[in-house]
Amino acid sequence: MAAPAADASRPAAQEELIVLQDVHKIYQMGTAQVKALAGVSLSVRRGGFWAIMGPSGSGKSTMLNLLGCLDRPTRGRYVLNRHDVSTLSDDGLSEIRLREIGFVFQSFNLIPQLTVQENIELPLYYQGWAAARSAERAEELAAMVGLGDRSGHRPTELSGGEQQRVAVARSLANDPSVLLADEPTGNLDSATGQQIMELFAELNRRGKTIVLVTHEPHIAGYAGHRLHMRDGRVDRIEAEA
What we know:
The protein is α/β, with parallel strands linked by helices. It has a single domain (48-72, 94-239), classed as P-loop containing nucleotide triphosphate hydrolases (Rossmann fold), CATH 3.40.50. The chain has seven helices and ten strands. Helix 4 packs across helix 5 and helix 5 (160-171) runs parallel beside helix 6.
């Protein structure tokens, strides 16, 4: 059963970064309506580490899309870092994505023509950072993920694990409020996947809020909270004692 949604109007001291209140998402497929989410309520505190799990069609990908402001609810309320994003325009959603959210994808989504440094810098370019400041930030992040000596290489010159480390560094460039990861170890072998998850765990220990989608229980085991979805609803939430 879903945890009751917290009041998004509470003071920031309550540390609620993400609040979903009775969120529904319905897709129109021809003459039929498909309920992807059916009344999800959830509260994620700043600094939390959550894994979203569930069978195919359970709504977990739709949930991540909504959290990432790639889509908006059909009904219900979504508050991110005290911003009510439920009714924002497309431009407003883009601005929130740029400022508040870092994304890590299963397929890395790096630009092959750009170097490691340039891939990490990309979000900062769109935010209008000065070149020198952007380069300094990218160098700092490349070093943090263990690729300080690979910053001039292109993605094709890197292993899968190294490419995902670049993707993680890029997602952190603008110091987002939350890091969203969609099956971040799905294209990696088990040993490399473990290294990536240990990197996420370290980022979380440093205070970064992380929400990831995975179908693998051992990957979800890194998270302090595991949200299990079924038929567009929160089936249960498991939390570490």
